């Protein structure tokens, strides 16, 4: 086996990769749509079966099953290289019908085309290349998860387990619009704030009422006040709801909070401040509860992760990606979980795309082959 065999085969698979990408983009797979997420998983399983790659499902009752595939060296008990990615999207049922996979001006469009179904297609084809030709210095494990877009409530323990068992993790979230990959990410906590007040007629009996909406307004101002841009800490109450009618003091209100931070040490400080705000009644008679709905941990570059990036960067130059650099992202990803368990991790290795989570999400089709080649060469040289 030579490097050229792997890279030439991947170059020859450009249309096959696009065809598989079209198939999975055209299946709705919102995070809460277990049937759709599992249908995407089944399409990848079909690819593994067609190429003789061993795979298995790890069942989950509520969210999509985890898909595992292995390209192992016979008799090897070495730690594998883990190729990781998620197949859920932020889009609801029917989006793939309304906005199916299309190609215009050498860009592909469709729900999840960049974030991150193209990265999964790339991972699968790189693993297939090594299954076909051999040559990997280490076993390769492919992990396809199901609920990253909502904080990986079912996948986190799977990711942490597989991350601990791996020698290195390549997470194929979309490459940055700059063409760079991601070497650092913010952590994030997604919270639900519920406030109880007391209903009363706002004209005839105003003084008897206790406004939960009024309390929520005070709390939002104080929560937003915890933002510290210099430290990379941001607080955003992005969704609010509440009230009974325009002429009733609101008996209930709720808000959903997004916290982002860079330094792992800042988590406890900011959370303590939020919990103090939640416990304080700015409108007497109200009460509040806070629930964490999902959480990601930061990707902090270790020395081992820096060395992994340098190996990848050199491989990428060989594949023609001569200007590729590491980049910090304020977005969260599953790569934080593997970085946090101490495994060298880099992220954003997928084909280049942008405008994720919007109807304008796109993928640069010419990036598919060189990004696949770069990943394969990084594995070979690892």
Provide structural commentary.
The structure is a single chain. 35% of the residues lie in helices and 23% in strands. It contains eleven helices and 16 strands. The protein has a six-stranded mixed beta sheet with strand order 1-2-6-3-7-14, sandwiched between helices. α2 packs across α5. It is elongated. By secondary structure, the protein is α/β, with parallel strands linked by helices. It folds into two domains: 268 residues, Zn peptidases (Aminopeptidase, 3-Layer(aba) Sandwich), CATH 3.40.630; 110 residues, Alpha-Beta Plaits (2-Layer Sandwich).
N-to-C terminal Cα separation, in Å? Answer: 16 Å
Please give the order of strands in the largest beta sheet.
Answer: 1-2-6-3-7-14
| CATH structural architecture of the largest domain | 3-Layer(aba) Sandwich
Structural class: alpha/beta
The CATH superfamily of the largest domain bears the name Zn peptidases
The first-level CATH class of the largest domain is given as: Alpha Beta
Spans of at least 5 consecutive residues with low confidence: none
